[in-house]
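Readers of this paper often ask what the protein records in our data store actually look like. Nothing more is needed to write down the fold, since each code stands for a local backbone conformation. Below, we set out a record of this kind in full and without editing:
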Amino acid sequence: MRPRLLRACLPFAASMLVPAIALPAQGLVPPFRVGITNPLPGLSAPAVPGTNVQQVHFVHLASDPPNVFLCSMTVAGLAAQYGGVGSTDLLSGRFDVLTNTFTPNSEAAALNTTGTEFGLMLHHTALYAVFDRLPGPPWLASRAAVGMPWQIVGPITPLPPQSNYDPAPADFNGQTHLLHVLGTSIAMTPINLTNASLTGPSVIVINQARAGSTANSPTPVLDTMGQLIGFSHHDVLASDNDH
């Protein structure tokens, strides 16, 4: 499996033309300095119950305080009490940006197998989620209410076979779409959230940025109503995966 960089919507910022939003300062996080590693202690081991964190995603619910985000992660060496069983596993929890504190829970435990799960990405309602289970197609999970354990809906089909898909869910014009790698590009395809089936043609929305590269890791940028207004993503060439 090729490595992927940490990806997130909020509280991290993507470079694009979107309205400025005032957010509270991130508590204990040190000032950012270009050219050095800038650790986020609250989102790293040992604060996260594993050996390392490989992917992070956030959504914010209106019912939560403005500084608290639902958080999903891909973790290597995840502790068994949170569902750790494989090479990389999925973990959920909440992150407080003011105190730089991650509080894990076991809501994603049922999604993990002894194989490789990667890239748990949440719908803005936090009632649906998608992830890669390698090798094979991406998978859809759902739950009846926030705080309940995630349950498998099924593999998302039909998709052409490829090494990974980097799936993410997002609503556009009132229809939920799957954002995903398709060949060397990123596409969006309408999806039925009841049975994990894709219901329409795939539309390419992001092309590769360099000759021989692959656009990957699409993260939706949403407006306050949860509608898709932009993307954050990466572009990989050999081992160079740039944001």
User: Anything to note?
Assistant: Residues 93 and 104 are 4 Å apart (CA to CA). The radius of gyration is 17 Å. The first strand starts at residue 52 and ends at 59. DSSP finds no helices and 16 strands in the chain.
